[in-house]
Amino acid sequence: MVINKQMNALSLILTLHTPYKVLLLFPVITIAMTGCQANGTNDSDSMFFGRYIQYIRGNIPNQYADLKNALPASPVNISDGKRLYQMQCLACHGEAGDGDGLAGKQLVPSPANLAFTRRLPLATDAFFFWTISEGGEPFGSAMPAFGDQLTEKQIWQITLYINTGFNSDQGT
Ligand code: HEC
User: Fold this and answer.
1) Is the sign of the CA dihedral 29, 109, 168, 64 positive or negative?
2) pTM here?
3) Residues 68-96: what's their mean pLDDT?
4) Ligand 1 mean position, distance from CA 132 (Å)
């Protein structure tokens, strides 16, 4: 429950203009983290904000900053994206994208809830491409870097699939 309220506060803040965002984000994150501890939630359930902070500060590598997905959200691209997601991502992020994959259970930080992430204003094409390409090494997380394993097209197909809300039958 507490987490849900914090998530809502976070989503709201992320819609604001950058200076306000940066100003408001830190207290909310601190409260969220304190909330997790006070609840006795263990570390693997706590949220990880490092990636959001880096993105909002504009500190993602330049080569990703302006990227836009040029692939159409066609049935073929989405079903290819789904297949790739199931092969490469599902083990950690779970079938419905909510971060509960078996291989992710013990990870700290835990795999992100991508079904939630995709609704955040910061979940731009650039955010996804950067994250999927470079992974979690800069943050000490287990999120693998797929830049050498997947083609650009494949990364965009996975992004399209995530943005259907993990429902390839319905589209966005
Ligand atoms: C070994 C487990 C693992 C696998 C496999 C994995 N991830 Fe992750 N992923 C993580 C963890 C842990 C995080 C949270 C820490 C971070 O952001 O680096 C994460 C974070 C993310 C984020 C950031 C979301 C947010 O809200 O911050 C995205 C996007 C993402 N993963 C996409 C993918 C995609 C797409 C694939 C498959 C191509 C994938 N991941 C495969 C573990 C994994």
Assistant:
1) positive
2) 0.82
3) 97
4) 7
